[in-house]
Write a structure and sequence with these properties.
The complex is a heterodimer of chains A (about 325) and B (about 600).
Chain A (H helix, E strand, L loop, with lengths): L1 H26 L5 H4 L6 H11 L5 H13 L14 H36 L4 H15 L2 H20 L16 H35 L2 H8 L4 H12 L1 H17 L2 H6 L5 H10 L3 H29 L7
Helix pairs in contact in A: 1-14, 5-6, 5-8, 5-11, 5-14, 6-8, 7-8, 11-14, 13-14
Chain B lengths: L1 H34 L4 E7 L14 H10 L4 E3 L7 E3 L7 E2 L5 E5 L22 H10 L20 H10 L13 E3 L4 E5 L7 H4 L10 H7 L13 E7 L3 E6 L16 H5 L15 E7 L2 H9 L5 E3 L5 H4 L9 H5 L3 E6 L2 E7 L11 H13 L2 H9 L4 E2 L26 H10 L15 E7 L2 H15 L4 E7 L1 H9 L5 E7 L6 H4 L19 H11 L5 H17 L2 E6 L1 E6 L3 E2 L15 E2 L5
Parallel strand pairs in B: 1-10, 15-16, 15-17
Antiparallel strand pairs in B: 2-3, 4-5, 5-7, 6-7, 8-9, 9-10, 11-19, 12-19, 13-17, 13-18, 14-18, 20-21
Helix pairs in contact in B: 11-13, 17-18
The chains are: A mainly alpha (about 325), B alpha+beta (about 600).
Chain lengths: ~325, ~600
């Protein structure tokens, strides 16, 4: 397994360098200095700013400088917009994002797998159809509608009408300062995320499970007298794990990136909001560092997915 | 039987989960109850909030809002009358020498910086003349990318030379090197010698970028200085979570500043009992908590839930709170004890022309007629109704509401305000483009309009297109991000562009400077309007004191611009504020932000 991982890592180095190269080239299509130069700027001021930003250097030098920072994990360069070290900005944004995305992923996966098993088990019945109808309905409504209604009916209205102050309309306090903070500030965004994403996952998992039920081993199990629940929840579920794992693993890197809409509307200082703000203000140091970190996580999670295949399915061999 | 039992457990489990969550949330709620023992004021900040707490690096309104609580300028505008200057760190307003070149200042005694570990023994020391010189010299320091150098450029004797020498030396910036225009008389008295007797200089000293900072803090904290603010202001920085919240606590050693006296308030304000705490020492509250809101709904709901002291009224919620026709608060809002205030912003919203553009630019009668035709085809009232609930002010000329030179009722003697299509078509013929086609070649007139790609701009561009294309002219919108828009204007590539200017201080000179020839792109004169007669008048007003004579010249310049038509406009926003029943002494204004210290709260009304 280790030689496989080492080889995969080596193969991905050019991919990684390419990603960084493309992002840096794309960012430099337009000059960002004018966004920062301030009111009534002179040419001198403009030139000085470009020099301070390192934009007067040849592109190759800028690329090499950034690669050196990535290799040495030196993210001490300061954000152009926030003036804080990039590493500090990113590390401060990870926990708020994870406070939403991780519980949402766990909840969504647990509920979606359970519902899809039930739906597949009762395939063709009214229950199956109702579950799928609910799933389609959930994913058909815009996220913004959930957010607006969630803030009003989930947070504002219960407090105004009944004095129940369970969820905050917006804001964030770290879970490290008390578990109550998570319920108050993160629970509502988590529930909204679950409601929105559960439809996609349920439909996908149900399709996977239904496909598994037509395999020969299921017929064999029936012939051997295994009960239907045992076939579904033991045999079928285990064999359906590869697509489920693939789906979950693809999602993993996005846990770190957070949700732009959710973080913006709920005023949560996570990665999604940090990234969109950086893009809007052409804050290259933040965008580049974010891309470098995200690309690395994505590549590593792909390798990890392959490893997990081998662990859950003895038929898969890493070579 | 078994199945029944299992089913009956589910509601219990849900209930138990709710109770558990409520309990866990209650753990968090406890500090809130404690916090109510002190007077805490919760206020909103639109957008992501400040980018920096260093005055020298600040530029936005939100930087201003935050910095003005922690730092102070030498002078400010009076809360009761935001047109009037009053001393802040000064004992009295500066005096001018007969030639108007030398300003003499006396610092208020006993003003101390906040306690911080950059000072000996951690105790804040008294503000002295050298702090003023240091703070102003910082704007010349290349370390701060000259972000606010434009405020002082060319105005103080020897400062431009000092800037050039220091930044070219290749060594560390020497703040001890003398500047001819900075004359220290004593620790509490100093003079500033100007290059020209420009009146606007005193307004510059009210701007937050010129706030007084201690040298010790700048040197000790270095690049972290923007996050460890140490000023003389009424509040001390407690915690800043960028893009999320900013908490400030009362400065217990704040120098004596009294609430405006009764006779400083006008009748309307007195009716609203704003004079009630007259003569009392400020600040009144122990703590201020600013929350940043990128989106409007959370801010609106928080205000409705009584969690914010005031809020600006977002356009989409305007009719929820106000009667659109009368602009009065709806009875159901008033009944809750909520009050309202309108603040006319010093805005100049326009669609500019590049006067160097081969088609749209130029001062010949034909070119002028072409721009006038476009102006006449544009219906600003329709834009105002469609996008701003009709609450903006539409006016002629570039001078915002309430400033000297603003035309009476917004209408100048000569105007090209639309929509007046017959007149517009006549002007188009006069310009040699009948029905939008070149009279000689038959070429189609195409206008490329650059604006930033915000949703509102996209919608407004569509309306502009419909209005202007009624003349047979082809109108193409070029939607770009804001920095690209600036770049296009700086490089003179945008034939027509949508923009806005917020006045830096309440003097029309600031707006008239936008058309002063030497300020051409990449300066603030993005119109590249150059007319010697106009420039001569601008030079003249620079050194004039406010008065009828100066106002007459302002009007002459305004009318010259209306006739030459380097832009289509104008419009200015009126900000509507709602105030919670529990906030006291509140009359929001965006002209300065040092008024937060006058606010108080009545927790019994929460």
């Amino acid at each position: 397994m280790w030689p496989y991982i080492a080889r995969k890592l080596l193969y991905n180095i050019p991919v990684y360098l390419g990603i960084i190269l493309i992002v840096m080239v794309c960012l430099r299509v337009n000059d960002p200095a004018s966004a920062y130069v301030g009111k009534s700027a002179s040419q001198e001021q403009y030139d000085k700013l470009r020099a301070d930003m390192g934009l007067d250097e040849p592109f190759v030098v800028q690329y090499a400088t950034f690669l050196r920072q990535v290799v040495t994990l030196d993210f001490s360069e300061r954000s152009w917009e926030q003036k804080r070290p990039v590493g500090e900005i990113l590390s401060a944004s990870v926990l708020p994002s994870l406070s939403i995305t991780l519980p949402a992923l766990i909840l969504t996966t647990l509920v979606a797998v359970t519902v899809s098993l039930v739906a597949a088990y009762l395939r063709g019945t009214v229950t199956d159809r109702m579950l799928m109808f609910g799933a389609v309905l959930g994913m058909s409504v815009s996220l913004l509608v959930y957010v607006v209604l969630g803030q009003y009916f989930g947070a504002y209205w219960p407090k105004q009408e009944y004095g129940i102050d369970l969820f905050a309309v917006e804001g964030y306090e770290s879970i490290l300062k008390g578990p109550g903070n998570w319920v108050k500030y993160c629970m509502l965004p988590v529930l909204i995320t679950v409601v929105l994403t559960i439809g996609y996952d349920t439909r996908f998992y149900r399709a996977v499970i239904v496909e598994e039920t037509s395999r020969d081993y299921v017929t064999t199990a029936v012939a051997k007298g295994a009960t239907k629940p045992k076939i579904m929840f033991v045999h079928v579920l285990k064999n359906a794990m590869i697509p489920i794992i693939t789906h979950v693993m693809i999602t993993l890197p996005f846990l770190v990136t957070g949700s732009i809409v959710m973080e913006t509307y709920f005023n949560i200082p996570g990665m999604g909001r940090t990234l969109i703000t950086a893009i809007n203000s052409k804050d290259f140091p933040v965008i580049q560092a974010f891309t470098a970190v995200f690309a690395a996580i994505f590549i590593l999670s792909n390798i990890l997915t392959d490893v997990l295949y081998a662990l859950v399915d003895p038929r898969v061999r890493l070579s | 039987m078994t199945i029944k039992t299992k089913r009956s457990r589910l509601p219990r489990l849900v209930l138990a989960a709710c109770i558990l969550m409520g309990f866990v949330a209650g753990v968090q709620a406890a500090p809130d109850r404690d916090a109510k023992q002190t007077k805490t004021l919760q206020l909103p900040m639109r957008t992501d909030g400040p980018k920096s707490l260093d005055p020298a690096q600040g530029s936005t309104q939100y930087d201003n809002m935050a910095v003005s609580q922690i730092y102070e300028t030498l002078m400010t505008f009076a809360y009761a009358d935001p047109q009037r200057l009053e001393p802040l760190l000064l004992a009295e307003l500066p005096t001018r020498s007969p030639d108007g070149l030398t300003l003499s200042f006396k610092l208020k005694p006993g003003v101390k910086f906040h306690d911080a570990d950059c000072f000996a023994g951690g105790k804040g020391r008294e503000v002295v003349s050298d702090d003023v010189f240091f703070s102003l010299k910082r704007l010349a320091d290349g370390t701060y990318q000259y972000k606010n150098w434009w405020l002082l450029e060319g105005s103080i004797k020897g400062l431009d030379e000092y800037k050039a020498t220091q930044n070219a030396s290749g060594k560390a910036f020497d703040y001890d090197a003398p500047v001819e225009g900075f004359v220290k008389v004593s620790d509490r008295e100093f003079q500033i010698v100007l290059t020209k007797p420009v009146f606007k200089f005193q307004y510059i000293l009210t701007m937050f970028q010129t706030s007084i900072v201690p040298r010790e803090a700048v040197e000790k904290y270095g690049k972290d200085f923007p996050f460890k603010a140490v000023g003389t202001g009424p509040f001390v920085l407690d915690r800043w979570q960028p893009k999320q919240s900013l908490s400030l606590v009362r400065n217990s050693a704040y120098h004596e500043v009294l609430y405006p006296a009764r006779d400083e308030w006008n009748d309307e304000d007195r009716r609203r009992r704003l004079h009630r705490p007259a003569g009392q020492r400020v600040p009144f509250v122990d703590r201020i908590e600013f929350s940043m809101y990128v989106q409007e709904q959370p801010m609106w709901l928080q205000f409705q839930a009584g969690q914010l002291g005031y809020t600006e009224v977002p356009a989409e919620y305007f009719e929820e709170a106000f009667d659109k026709r009368t602009r009065e608060l709806k009875p159901e809002t008033s009944r809750r004890g909520v009050t309202a205030h309108q603040d006319a912003l010093l805005d100049f919203i326009f669609q500019g022309f590049n006067m160097e553009d081969p088609v749209l630019g130029g001062l010949s009668p034909e070119k002028r007629a072409l721009r006038q035709a476009i102006h006449l085809a544009t219906d600003l009232d329709e834009i105002n109704e469609a996008f701003y609930n009709g609450i903006n002010e539409v006016f002629d000329g570039p001078i915002p509401v309430a400033l000297d030179g603003h035309p009476k009722d917004g209408r100048a003697p000569q105007s090209y305000r639309g929509s007046d299509l017959p007149r517009a078509r006549a002007k188009l013929i006069e310009a040699g483009w009948p029905e939008g086609k070149n009279a000689r070649t038959g070429e189609q007139l195409v206008i490329r309009y650059y604006t930033s790609n915000a949703m509102l701009n996209q919608q407004q561009s569509e309306m502009l297109k419909r209005q202007i294309e009624r003349l047979g002219v082809k109108f193409e919108s070029v939607m770009v991000d804001f920095s690209t828009l600036i770049e296009a204007c700086d490089n003179r590539k945008a034939p027509m562009f949508g923009f806005a200017w917020g006045s830096d201080y309440p003097d029309a000179e600031n707006n008239l400077a936008l058309f002063y020839g030497p300020n051409e792109s990449p300066g603030a004169n993005h119109f590249n309007y150059k007319r010697p007669e106009y420039d001569a008048m601008y030079q003249q007003i620079l050194v004039m004191e406010p008065g009828p004579e100066r106002t007459a010249i302002y009007e002459k310049m305004r009318d010259m611009l209306i006739e030459d038509c380097p832009y289509v406009g104008s419009m200015g926003r009126t900000r509507f504020y709602l105030m919670a029943p529990w906030i006291l002494n509140c009359r929001p204004t965006e002209r300065m932000w040092s008024w937060i210290k006058y606010l108080d709260v009545d927790d019994s009304k929460r």
